[in-house]
Write a structure and sequence with these properties.
Elements (H helix, E strand, L loop, with lengths): L5 E7 L18 H8 L2 E7 L5 H10 L3 H4 L15 H7 L3 E6 L7 H4 L4 E3 L17 H11 L4 E2 L4 E5 L7 H15 L5 E6 L7 E4 H4 L24 H10 L6 H31 L6 E7 L19 H4 E2 L1 E4 L8 E8 L3 H9 L24 E9 L4 H4 L8 H6 L1 H6 L1 E7 L3 E5 L7 E4 L17 H18 L17
Helix pairs in contact: 1-10, 7-10
Length: about 500
């Protein structure tokens, strides 16, 4: 019997696919991602099942869409009866570790599945299995700096520090991950390395922000009347009103983007540090390494920064690289439509572990003998009332992060929006009444014009509508997701 492979899942937070030169970016090199891709398979069309942290992560580990597992809001964490990867790996004798952002497991029973539990930031008192290699003072240094960020847009803060790289969460987590690998090199392990970056607040070491001066950054294409000509759904208009940069100086726009891409490059170096450690300990050949992000960020697209409950590619298309030198072909780009819920079934297939029947993901093509797919799906909302422009106007200005957070529970629950994507088309439907969306990705890759109402696309619209309906029927569960408490719909 072959030796059990080690498993390392490296996940960033809020990193859109096009934040890397591997996915078309012209100014942000990610050499470690490239190194990993050269040792495996890069998926060009990977989609998150949900463009929000908690639902995406629960869906990832359970291999179930949010409407099946009941986790459709940040307030609904891992269900108690969920069959997820960590239960399986623990039962198969793996030493397990979570280092970094959790945002998924809150039950003591689930946390106990990890032999090492270092969920930084936060929950410091709940760590077990391995102490942090930095002092508590060092751990808090960057968090304190966040509160005092000197440079501010009207909506969001951004900054850089001269603190040691290890004081930042990415440096801390990468260093702790290498300690875990070195300590467990003699037996099979499964490790989730979960970087909080490049999620806001956007703060990075000066070493990295210096890599992205304004004259290096390229702004994405815009359409001036995108949200004024009647083609955009109201939910998209609301989000643009909250997150747009029209009142920010161009210096601040470049500043925010520079900090974001600095964090992406920092994460990339953290990935490289982990790969170096695996090689140094002669573990790389028999270690399955996956790199991905839970969802994306506007970061300039559609004149916005941050994220929200819409389905542009900058929020739903994510990097995904799969590598196992011992068994998987190398240096391949795969353009099949795939989903993050496919990752765990693929790992299980490579391990020779049977996939639980409740898991909905398919094994990935090229990495396994899985079939290529033409369609994949994402969703948002759980049937709550609409959050309209008139509702937004009841909140105090300036809008931005304050309005984003104050309205989050309402907005993450509103509607029952569902997306189907192919290589060339995207269709978004809300059965609760907001305007549908259709994008011709071949001729409009930046999704600047919703063509849902154009008669020449009726056949394509009908085709994708049927695909959405079939998917909903095939995957719909009977697990409801609770709506926010009544006070979350009030303005006081």
């Amino acid at each position: 019997m072959d030796e059990q492979p080690n498993i390392v899942v490296v996940m960033s937070d809020q990193q859109k696919a096009t934040a890397s030169h591997l996915y078309g970016n012209t100014f942000c090199e990610t050499p470690s991602m490239e190194r990993l891709a050269n040792e495996g398979v890069l998926f060009e069309n990977a989609v998150t099942p949900h463009p929000l942290c908690v639902p995406a992560r629960v869906a990832f580990w359970t291999s179930q869409f949010p409407h099946s597992n009941g986790c459709r809001r940040n307030e609904t964490l891992m269900p108690p009866d969920a069959e997820h990867a960590w239960k399986l790996w623990k039962n198969h004798g793996y030493t397990t570790g979570l280092i970094g952002k959790n945002h998924c497991f809150n039950r003591i029973e689930d946390q106990a599945l990890f032999d090492v539990w270092n969920p930084y930031p936060g929950a410091r008192n709940n760590i077990h299995g391995m102490d942090w290699f930095r002092s508590e003072k060092d751990l808090n240094r960057v968090a304190e700096a966040v509160k005092k960020m000197p440079q501010q847009t009207l909506s969001f803060g951004y900054s850089s520090t001269d603190f040691p790289l290890e004081d930042h969460s990415t440096g801390l987590i990468a260093g702790q991950a290498t300690r875990f690998i070195e300590s467990n090199s003699k037996k099979p392990f499964a490790l989730w390395v979960s970087f909080p970056d490049p999620h806001e607040p956007w703060i990075a070491p000066k070493y990295y922000t210096d890599m992205f001066p304004a004259d290096k950054i390229q702004l994405p294409p815009q359409r001036d009347n995108e949200f004024l000509d009647g083609t955009a759904p109201e939910r998209n208009i609301v989000l643009h009103d909250i997150l747009n940069w029209r009142n920010d100086s161009i210096e601040d726009v470049y500043g925010v983007m520079g900090a974001y891409y600095a964090m992406v490059r920092f994460v990339d170096d953290g990935l490289g540090q982990i790969l170096d450690c695996l090689e140094k300990n002669n573990l790389r050949e028999n270690t399955i390494v996956v790199f991905c992000s839970d969802h994306g960020d506007f970061m300039g697209e559609h004149g916005m920064t941050c994220k929200g409950g819409v389905f542009y590619d900058c929020l739903t298309r994510v990097p995904l690289i799969f590598s196992w030198p011992k068994k998987i072909h190398s240096n391949i780009r795969q353009d099949s439509m795939v989903n993050l819920i496919d990752v765990v079934p693929t790992i299980l297939e490579l391990q020779g572990i049977d996939k639980p029947r409740r898991m909905q993901g398919d094994v990935l093509p090229t990495v396994t003998n899985g079939n290529e797919k033409k369609y994949t799906f994402s969703e948002y909302g759980c049937g709550g009332p609409m959050f309209s422009v008139s509702d937004l106007q009841k909140l105090s200005r300036p809008w931005g992060r304050k309005a984003l957070m104050k309205s989050l529970q309402w907005r993450e629950a509103e509607g029952r929006r569902k997306m189907v994507r192919t290589k060339d088309w995207k269709f978004v439907h809300d059965p609760m009444g907001d305007k549908d969306e259709l994008y011709d990705l071949k001729n409009d890759p930046w999704e600047l014009l919703n063509v849902c109402d154009r008669s020449e696309h009726t056949a394509k619209l009908n085709e994708l509508s049927v695909r959405l309906g079939d998917w909903s029927i095939e995957t719909e569960g009977d697990v409801p997701s609770p709506l926010p408490e009544p006070e979350k719909y009030l303005y006081s």
